[in-house]
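Inputs:
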Amino acid sequence: MDAAAPKPKENQGEPLPRVDARLKVTGQAHYPADLPTANIAYGALATSSIARGKVTKLRLDDARAVPGLLDIVTYGDMDKVDKPKFGNSSATSVGPLHDRTIFHDGQIIALAVAETFEAAEEAAQLIRAEYDEEKPTASFDSPGTKTVAAAGKSPMFKEDVKAGDFDAAFAAAAVKIDQRYSTPTQHHNPIELFSTTAYWQGDQLVVHEPSQNVTGWKVELARQLKMDPAKVRIVSPFIGGAFGSKGPMTPRTAIVAVAAKRLGRPVRCVTSRMQAFGTQTYRAETRHRIRIGAGKDGRITAFAHEGWEVTSRPDLYVVGGTSATGRMYGYGSVLTHVSLVQADRNTPGYMRSPPETPYVYALENAMDEMAATLGMDPVEFRRINEPKTEPIGKKPFSSRSLIQCYDQAAEAFGWAKRDPKVGAMRDGDWLVGMGCATAIYPTAVAPCAARVRLTIDGDVRLQCGSHEIGTGVRTVAGQMASERLGVAIDRISVEMGDSSLPPAPVSGGSISTASVCSAVLKACDAIRTKLYAAATAEGGPLAGSHNEDFDLADGKIVAKSGASAKVEDVLKTMQVGAIEEYAEFAPKGATPEALKKLYAGTPEFHGGDQDEDSVKYAFGAEFVEVRVNRYTREIRVPRIVGAFAAGRIMNTRTARSQLMGGMIWGIGQALHEATEVDRRYARYVNRDLQDYLVPVNADIKDLQVILVPEVDHAVNPAGVKGLGELGNVGTAAAVASAVYHATGKRIRDLPIRIEQLLV
Amino acid sequence: MRPFIYEQPTDISAAVALASNFTTRDDQPTRANAQFIAGGTNLADYMKLGVAEPNRLLDLNRLEEQKLRQIRVTEDGIRFGALVRMGEAADHREVKARYPVIADSLRLAASGQIRNMASLAGNVLQRTRCEYFRETSWACNKRVPGSGCAAMDGFNRQHAVLGGSDACIATYHGDFAQALIALDAVVHAEGSRGARKIPFAKLHRQPGDTPHIETDLAADEIVTAIEVPALPWARRSLYLKIRDRESYAFALASAAVALDLDGETVREARIALGGVATVPWRASVAEDALQGKKLDEASAGAAADAAFAEAQPHQHNAFKIELGKRTLVRALLETRDMKV
Ligand SMILES: Cc1cc2nc3c(=O)[nH]c(=O)nc-3n(C[C@H](O)[C@H](O)[C@H](O)COP(=O)(O)OP(=O)(O)OC[C@H]3O[C@@H](n4cnc5c(N)ncnc54)[C@H](O)[C@@H]3O)c2cc1C
Ligand code: SF4
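Outputs:
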């Protein structure tokens, strides 16, 4: 086994290679925009160059004169279609072609459709808008913002959590800090560009588009187009990076569907990298004020976390990470408050660990500062404040292995060799710093359906409308079936990413492995029950051996007594060629409406902080070494170690890969990523990968992921905690902690750049 | 992207003839109807973005003159054919040994794939990457003369602190050019008015009131070679590039340095600065400040102060003055300490 395929420990599955690995590396995996489609026409978007005002005139003549131009869809052409409804499946409530009001920079003003991609692009570039322009509000501190309380504005963010009397406890605390932190706008920039391919087959609409939520989109798109959802199909078998950006549907999808209908031809629109900044969602910029009060012994008595987040004028998108930060440690008292600041911007949305990334960054940076203020080792400080129950509802954690994570990561990192004195460690002209931070992510699960068929030839077909966004869910779902049905993984075909399959929840909130595996488990167990019943029935090959433990292995039913029967023979006695089971999994605590909502594309989430019996979170600890040049102050990260505990690990290879990707992203969030907003115009400036920096290979040196064994039966039947979003939580704070240790400079505003260290 | 005519002339004179046919005397090479393309890594990008709009591309890659593809080392120096790829020059043994500053400047630029595609002449002539220049909805005097400069009071972290004007503060982003200007390179060009040699320092124009005029070249002039004179002590030279990430990023500040030392005393220094100026920037004042001095942190610091004495900061790029100075100090000390 090599580093990429860690040896499984207790409660960890085999590091099987991804079932679709070969397809991906040989270019045979067809991403939605790759799909060969006959008689296709190409669409290109024209977008606004102002952030606020009205389009008074659209000049289309030059565009119409482009040879090969077929159609232009613009104002008036969407009137028979309903506007998007902001919420689960829609990124925004702005129907850009429904009215001439401009709400944000880069808003769609037309779709040019032509015989070739080049002609469509040329035509789109030639569409000229005249505006009645108003002075826009860019962000925090710009004139014209409107601030509202976040609590209750989103079903996911019901309240500002609190506990005890913060004011009194903070006033009485012997040691305290009161600091402000900020994180910038960030765009996902998945390498696969955003695209929609739509075609009609009679009155049926088929859309190929990278999507993390085919069921939700089917229902929402049908609503916009006033159609029966059964007549809409969304297909998204492979996705080249999503990170939340392909969770909500954007207005483009309906516009392309309308274009395809008008032309009676398939239409494909690939959004340019630059246009994605204004037509898709992004991570909102956030600000934080954190107050921590503690005794001289390091015990925290008071914790307050206030957050401010930018959102659009039409839609109140809530980031809201105080539920996690308010439950992180054993604070004596907690006070939180989240505010939304509305500006003339497109509506933000989910981006990998949406609430936790910015909020835990602020908390963990503050924890490091508090430890320094107390003169205490930062790991020790966390150990002292390890809670027995979470401070808000006083519920137990279903499992919590944070200290094990700290211990194992500290050991592997060599934390003991760290000289705690700031600026004391050097290597030639490089200042060396070491820091750490906690990662946390809520463990949620949602209803999910799956269909599994076992054939007499020993093949398995598994169908589930979940999404392979690169996490390996196809592989782990197959592994689950392989294990329960005793069939080798190469005999199992897994179909996903199509709204005509049994519905699965949105692939967000790190719920996929838990939800999909629980449904697959249920379907497989139903097949097992049928097989066993048939085998043990009168005349069956295991007749007489009732109520025994049994297992399925290598195509056989094996009873505890040692008796066995070939599955093939059991099916023969049943006189069937296959057994197929359709299972609907609903988590503990699900409402009677839960399955209905699954089919409606609005699944309930359970777990996290929602359950009565306990709160459910996955934890990790990350340690980072940085080097800062004595003269020029550039920051490099030669080493990073993360230890994570997330219940049952289905596959150590795909789990490590997710956590590794998260940690790398965390380094990017610490040092590179930021979308710059021109504050005069409320427009994005660095709209491509030349100026929107993410780490490259040379930035990532020695990276180690430790999978800490953990068993948790309370979270879901599969015993799985999501870990897709765990790895990038906390990383930026660990980097900031290391930078402080190296330089004595406490950087509170991300990203940490040379200019902050030069002064 | 607009349709264009694509031609592949087979020798220099044919290419020049085509160019002069479809351009006029006053055309700027970057605004002319017919434009040369080499690796295309800069020009094709700007055509897709609608920033460059030639309706005729003259591809230089089929020109039969072999000297265009050769690196020749002689007693007099080194001569790079215009079509030599960045990667080839960066890996050339003699270049690495005799002019480490050149090899470094190429090795630290762009990515492996781009270095394999991009030509040396194209590299030298690459256009700025100012975000407001790259996206056609912004006001930009360089792209549309007289339309204003959105960067001046906008987000200008990457912009220049040296050599700017009220009309434009776009940075010259190339790396190789800093090495060339420091080493007194000469550019060979051929056009309809004949062949000529242009001192490298005269090739690029500061923006002044006419930021759309970027170089001294005419629209029908082909760069054929870049010649670097012999300079034995250039073995003690290096290029230091400071950027936001470890690779594949433009310089926030860079320094090309070559030193002729007598013990620790500077007999002669060659210094150019990148990432901070509107054109390849020879820091002669810093060279003069060091001449005859013992090179240490103090004298290097004084030279760096002199180099940036005239620097003009804007809202987001003021840090480049301090960073530029420190980059130069570090480069000077590292060059002093080179084992040659
Ligand atoms: C993502 C990215 C990162 C980059 N990073 C760096 C970096 O870190 N450092 C750096 O220095 N560069 C960097 N570059 C720029 C890159 O080096 C240039 O794009 C490349 O060198 C241009 O060479 P080319 O042959 O492709 O030129 P082309 O794109 O073919 O041409 C560029 C210009 O030169 C003209 N031209 C070309 N050859 C001749 C000739 N013989 N005579 C007259 N005119 C000619 C063309 O008409 C055009 O105007 C980067 C580029 C990209 C895309
Ligand atoms: S700095 Fe120069 S290139 Fe950039 S917007 Fe201003 S004029 Fe244009």
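Remarks. Residues 319-336 of chain B form the longest helix (18 residues). Residues 11 and 107 of chain B are 30 Å apart (CA to CA).
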